[in-house]
Amino acid sequence: MWATAVGVARVRALETERGNALFRDPLAQAFATAGGLWPSSPPLPDDEAARPRRLAVSFSIVIRTKFLDDLLEQASASGIRQVVLLGAGMDSRAFRIDWPEGTRLFEVDTAESLDFKASVLRKERAVARCERITVAVDLREDWPGALAAAGHDPAVPTVWIAEGLLIYLPEDAVELLLGRISAQSATGSRMGLTLGPRGVIKRFGADAAPGSAASLWASEMPDDPVGWLAGHGWDAAGHTLRERAAAYGRPISTPPQPEERPGGLISAVRR
User: Fold this and answer.
1) Do the beta carbons of residue 143 and residue 135 sit within 8 Å?
2) Are strands 190-194 and 265-270 parallel, antiparallel or unpaired?
3) Got the DSSP string for 102-133?
4) What is the distance between the alpha carbons of residues 35 and 32, in angstroms, rounded to a whole number?
5) Is the dihedral of CA 106, 3, 55, 13 positive or negative?
6) Which long-range contacts (CB under 8 A, 24 or more apart) does 70-77 make?
7) Of 73, 170, 231, 238, whose CB neighbour count within 10 A is largest?
């Protein structure tokens, strides 16, 4: 899965180069280069059928990154000083966001992913802008225990981020993950989630190349994500990629899909 995270870094590097970039990620190119995905050769002629999928996925990565950046800044402004990135991958928010003093940011991922990331960070001599704590554990294991051992305090509010993660988990694993997050969340905690839009697996995943990111997609958002989260004790708001893209000045020109509905991008507050 860390290779998928390097692919996300490539998208963020391309966005960073734009004059009107929605965010700047100065480490993204280093992650992509180290992963052997930058620069890349042009797609082969017989790969053109996959181009719409690549463009759609890349666009969604850019919009969700901006959405979650805003959510984290709002959580910090509200006084939250404890951040957990689940499946952190090549996320560089510890290094590129101006965090308030006293912020502790936990990056939870596999040892393989974190070791690769650490090698790049050492080479780049990157310095975190907060207290950054890595937690090497597979999310299929007892990650709450590992997080607690690393110093996470469930008695104070936390802002949780699960970006580009839940779509790779089967529904029962998504339920387990959310239950564990909820059990570690004090009242006032916040959460940012990205969920696979309804129909995305049928449109893009069914004919995806074996081993590609889309071929690994396993679940989509529930019919009523706000109600689903309410059942877990969260007051949530759901947004479509189209809605957020328009708000950020990147409107989508193609017509809406029949299955399109709010909920692909989630912000939530723990009751």
Assistant:
1) yes
2) antiparallel
3) T-EEEEEE-HHHHHHHHHHHHHHT---SSEEE
4) 5
5) positive
6) 71/159, 71/161, 71/190, 71/192, 71/267, 72/97, 72/159, 72/161, 72/192, 73/97, 74/190, 75/159, 75/190, 76/100, 76/103, 76/159
7) 238
